[in-house]
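The protein record quoted for completeness.
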Amino acid sequence: HVGGRAVVVSAGGDGTTRVWDPLREELLGTPIHRHRGPVRAVALGRLQRRDVIVSAGNDGAVQIWDLGQARPLGDALTGHIGPVRAVALGEAGPQEMVVSGGNDGTVRIWDTPGARPASRRLAGHTGTVNGIVVGRIEDEEVVVSGSDDGTVRIWDSPTGRPHCAPLTSPAGDVKAVAVGRVGDRDVVVA
């Protein structure tokens, strides 16, 4: 929901990100076009008290968009080598962050949105990072990432250090991850 209104955000091979009103089945505004090549990931949330979209694509860039103004917030976030496949938004205490993962096997935590935010590069995966989420485990803020290398890694989001040893998927490559609470237990789903 954005401003009390339900929205759906989509992105595609034409390099655009679109915002839809699902109840009226119509496009809101004009498509946002800033990536060179296909957009591979989008996330919707709030940063700096604004409704934002985070998009990422084959061009290796992560872009934060002010949803109300349909304009970018600062320059594109760059640092990945190759396509970016996953993005998420979250908080570590009072600190807002954007998290991304890509073909280079790294996870990046972008500390503050804006013109030139600092990033932390988390290395450990040996394959493409396909899924990423920000959540809580045992009352600690974490980033969870899943990769083609068959591992799920849990990182302490304030420090970027591993929260525990990598989890190995018996099914092989990991395409998506989620973190949540089931009953009285914190769980990671991959």
